């Protein structure tokens, strides 16, 4: 099996910040808006390099989304930055009407998604944002897995015409995808080849899926591990091809099972190739305070939970 | 300056267009539309510097954003009669597969519309964004926005109003249609707005009144004064005092016609008060 090495733990939000810095230098139409979280979103360098293209909107997210929509008229490419909770639930109608329905080229960049925000607790730990965003017609939804991929995705979405939701997180996690990767929106990345089970993972759960695959391999179970960084549009072909081979699937995400990647995969399989599926996701619940590791363990979002789900789903074949 | 008589005729024709659009589909919002006929006619035919062809990016021209999207009948009429799309298309208002949706949208590609509106309170934010892009592009043109008075009850407006003043967005003229009415009754009864002028001033805007918001000459001269106020470090707010349902006696001074279409008899009566000028579509 392929070997993946953590080149040093890094936060995905820094991938966003560094991607934005690079974009600022190469694309003069890129502008950035932030709702009083410049440091948390790692937007300081863009702000320092291009103060005329950085817009501090204060604690006023609804206005930020509306402004971003307006700024596209005349050719700017606005990147908004705040926590995932305030990027989605708080401003849903603004995104729906002024961005998605209006077809505006806004990039909604959301940090601190999911449980791994940690100690701040459930008010800030949104586990519903993927669902909220994927339900919007014409919205592209991306959830990256590590620093390198987040940086590559940040740069790539500037060249894509249309509204995008880019989701990333706070903690330092394994950085294992290539620094020079060619990020293709909507294209799944096959990380491991196997025949017994398909593991489809997104975001922070991708590294956990790789760890799970190693453990399973030691027990003679081989897994296809697919990194789905783009939840919408979903790479149907890649998932179908794999499940047709393995006959079962485990989906893994740091999100409620309602509205998440797992549901998208279930819809695909139920209409085109029914197969047993197990969900690694939160179970219709709010989060709580704790360290990221404690929370991912308590809510069953880690490699050992994936291994258990694989054993369960294989038994259902 | 355009021929004033021609503009007066256009106002009357726009009223007919509004009434006939909502009557045909027995739905839509005639009250606020009628109240803003003079404003729209003045804006699109006298005040705005507009390019001949519609481009979404609107480079080197003034732009207009309608925040209170429910008054789409007046917007569509004035856009059509300004040449953005065929006047006959007003026949498709609110019909299936039409570009003239109940509330304006970019989604169906109707020329003249740059943002979807309908869910209230979002237009000032969008306008600020467009104004900032004008500045980044070194484009000296102005952003015009219209919002309703009842709409100011939406909190997002005040985020935007705070931002625009705090960041000297001075290429922006926000006009508030002060007709004192909303769906459930007068604004005073539903949720009092207090002193709107003092509120905008307290936020740091340059505020002026157009007391006779249904007097075409007063609107034209007032909006010209507003334009002169731009570029001075403050966003500009115009309080346009209008009468909901203006031009049709039984629709005036009441919220009853906010979102109700006239029946056949009422249409006939209303049209008789506004005889054909430029020709019906």
Automatic annotation (TrEMBL), chain A:
Domain Transketolase-like pyrimidine-binding: 10-175
Domain of life: Bacteria
Signal peptide from the UniProt entry: none
SUPFAM superfamilies named among the record's database cross-references: Thiamin diphosphate-binding fold (THDP-binding), TK C-terminal domain-like
Pfam families on file: Transket_pyr, Transketolase_C
Cofactor needs: thiamine diphosphate
Assigned keywords, A-Z: Thiamine pyrophosphate
Family: Belongs to the transketolase family.
Cross-referenced PANTHER family: PYRUVATE DEHYDROGENASE E1 COMPONENT, TRANSKETOLASE-LIKE PYRIMIDINE-BINDING DOMAIN-CONTAINING PROTEIN
The protein's name: Transketolase family protein
Lineage: Bacteria, Pseudomonadati, Bacteroidota, Flavobacteriia, Flavobacteriales
Automatic annotation (TrEMBL), chain B:
Listed PANTHER family: TRANSKETOLASE N-TERMINAL SECTION-RELATED (PTHR47514:SF1)
Protein name, entry field: Transketolase
Domain Transketolase N-terminal: 13-268
Key words, A-Z: Thiamine pyrophosphate
Cofactor(s) needed by this chain: thiamine diphosphate
UniProt keyword Cytoplasm present: no
Pfam families, alphabetized: Transketolase_N (PF00456)
Protein family per UniProt: Belongs to the transketolase family.
